[in-house]
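User: Structure with zinc ion, tokens only please.
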Amino acid sequence: MKTMIRLLPSVLLLCWPLFAGPRYDLLLRGGHVLDPKNKVARVADIAIAGGKIARVAPNIPADQARRAVNVSGLYVVPGLIDIHVHVYAATGRRAAYNGDNSVYPDGFCFRNGVTTVVDAGSSGWRDFPDFKDRVIDRSKTRVLAMLNIVGNGMSGGEAEQNVADMQAQPAARRAREFPNIIVGIKTAHYAGRDWVAVERAVEAGTLSNLPVMVDFGRFWLERPYSELILKKLRRGDISTHMYFGSVPLFNDNGRLHGYLNEARRRGVFFDVGHGGNAFVFRQAAPALEQGWTPDSISTDLHVASMNAGMKDMLNVMSKFLNLGMSLPEVVRRSTVNPANMIHRPELGHLSKGAEADVAVLRLVKGKFGFVDSWGARLTGTQKLEAELTIRAGHVVWDLNGITRDDFRQLGKYERQEHFEWDGTLIQRPPDPPSAKR
Ligand SMILES: [Zn+2]
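Assistant:
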């Protein structure tokens, strides 16, 4: 008896795994995993525990998870990262990107598989705290930001041309104050014939050790695009709107200008930034044929672009698929590439221990139309849809309820486990028949 009592703790310890319950919260089974950073492109299971990726391997037993979901036939990719959006809604400013032109991120992103966005300069150093308070701090979407070199951000009209408000020192100070959120400096919409906006943005980027993203605004002879990407931008800076109609991509023979690849060799990055006005098939299609591919695919999301040809991240990604880019390369440019461009290497992949941001995508075959900024259509045969989006281990979008049980299999008053955002996995007690609703 004494021996038994002495042994009891060890026996209990041995049995512990039997009592501890499943070790994973959620298991995605049988999907085709595309994780470019880790060079994974094969069928595998993904186990999630405590909001992190716990394991990626074939045939993880279903009983090791509280919920196992069959995602066979679907693509499982890192949560998408869109580094050019406008989400500074809520100020009430009319016709401004730091106002009514912006979109609330949670109301739009998850249904497209997007878990991280970078607001591209809607706010500047003056109004960034307001943006943070009104949007960033309240969003489940991970919202990062590039600060506009204009202190008052994208207020529209003359305010964005106010050279006196383009100040590198305070912008860099603000960036250093919020290193977890501010990932770059932006200049946009500048109509002057000089380099002031670009130079001040680069100065702020140098002071804060952050990349600069340039929307070149007007294209002037006095301010050639070639000079921007060959001389003004530094290694790691980003030229957005790369397929904009005014970008001089081709020589008279329709061949790609040599300076473009020269700039790429210097380390300048090129971003799609589709938007309402900046994606033209007559630029993009021949450019892609000659190897002029984007480093990052992004939307330039705002109220106008989402209702025009851009629509959403998956629609923009689908355009590249239908222009001949392979799905793994499209995913690379929507996950790990943009993460690295904003110096956030912890994002954009499915490594063990990474925050569990995951998109489960369906590649639908059929006949689809895609519209560009000059009102032209591309007819395509494939289109991506978001079946499931997971942010930090929580199911935030589930198009067809694949994480749910059929209602016929549940007891009369039984509710299914939810992956609630504000807590860990919880079991809702069934309501007794007498409970008031
Ligand atoms: Zn933009």
